[in-house]
Amino acid sequence: MKNVTLSRVIVLSVLYFAIMVLAAFYLGVFESQATYRERNAAIGMPLLTAYSFICNYYLLARARFCLYEFLTLNQLIRREKWVLNKLVKRSWLNFKVAWVVGITITLVYLYTEGLLAVDLDPLILFLNVSAVPFWSMCMLLILQLIFITRLVIKHFLDKERIGIFGNKKLLPISDLVISNTVMTVFFFALFPVFWINKDIPIIDKALIIVVLIAIVSLLFRPVIKVQKSIALQKQQALERINNSMLVIFDHRQINMRRLTDDPERLRRLSSLVALKQEVSKASEWPIDLPQSIKGVLVAISIPLSWAIGSLIETFISTVL
After folding, report:
1. Over the stretch 99-146, which tens digit does the pLDDT of each residue have?
2. Which of 164, 176, 197, 149 shows the shortest CA–CA distance to 39?
3. Prediction pTM value
C-alpha cells in the first residue's frame, strides 16, 4: 500500500465506475419508467462506491498529514510512530467490519425485497452483487470519520494544549475537520443520482438532510470543544484581570496614594489594560479565513448539487 498514490486510486476508481456502468447497460435496457430505478442504481452505486474508495484513501492520508503537522507544531513528534500505528491498525479493523456490515445489509435488503435468489434477471443479479462493495465502502467511510474524530478529541485536544493564544498550533486539527466535512458533504451531494426521473417523497430528502447534519455535527466536535475551552479560559482570564484592576483602584488600602501620584500602579494598570484588550481580541475559533470560506462553500454545495441533479435528469431523460 506504500506505493499506492492518490492518482492511482482515482484511476482505479474511475475504471471501476466505467466498467460497472458499461456492464449494467450491456445487461439491461432502460427505456421505460419501470426500469428507471435499476438504471439509477446502475449509475449511483458504482459512482458512490468509487467516490467512497477515493475518500477512504484520502481521509487516511489527510489524517496522517494533519496530525503530523500538529505534532510538529506542538513539539510532540516523538508520538508520530504511535499515531501511525494507531491509524493503520484501526483502519484495517474498520475495513473488516465494513465488509461484514456491507454484506449483512445487502443480504437483509435482498431478503426483504424477495431478491435473494440466483434465477433472477442477469441485470438484477449484477446489481445485487454491486450492492456489496457499495454498502461496504460507504460504511467504511462512516467508520473512518468517526474513528479519526474520536482519536483527535481523545488524544490531541487535552486542556493543556488548548490556550487563548495557541490557536495557530491547532490549525492542523481544524483543517482536518474541514477536509473531512467537505468529503462528507459531497458524498451526500451525489445522492440525487438515485432520484433521476423518480418521484422522491419529501421525507426521504429530509432524512438525508438530518443524517448529514448529524454527521457534520460529529465532525465539528473537535472545533466546538476548542471553542468552548477557549471561551471559558477567556472568561476566567478577564475576571482575573478585572479583579486585579479593582485592587489597583481600591482606596481602602493603607498608605495608598492617589493613582496619578503612583508610577508603579500606573504601570501595572497600563499592563492590565493592554492585556485585557489582547485577551478580548483573541479568537475563540481555531479556524482561519480560508477555512471559513471552505465552510461556506460546503454549506451551499448540497442545494447546488441538487439543482445540477435536476439538469442532469433533464439531459438524461432527453438523451436516453
Report:
1. 999 999 999 988 887 777 767 788 888 898 999 999 999 999 999 999
2. 197
3. 0.80
Min mean pLDDT across 8-22, 41-55, 141-155, 216-230 is at 216-230
CA distance 247 to 143: 54
How many distinct helices (H) and strands (E) make up the chain? 9, 0
pLDDT at 1: 47
CA proximity to 288, closest of 130, 131, 157, 178: 178
Going through 216-310 in order, the beta strands assigned E by DSSP cover: none
State mean pLDDT over 173-201.
82
Provide φ and ψ at 26, rounded to 5°: -75, -35
Longest dimension (CA), the chain: 101
Which triple of cell numbers denotes residue 36?
A: 428507471
Q: Which residue, chain included where needed, has cell 471552505?
A: 294
**For residues 180 and 173, is the Cβ–Cβ distance under 8 A?**
no
Give the Å distances, CA to CA, from 91 to 31, 123, 149. 42, 33, 13
CA dist 198 and 313 (Å) reads: 10
Number of residues that this document lists for the chain = 320
Residues in contact with 23: Cβ distance below 8 Å, sequence separation at least 6, in sequence order: 126
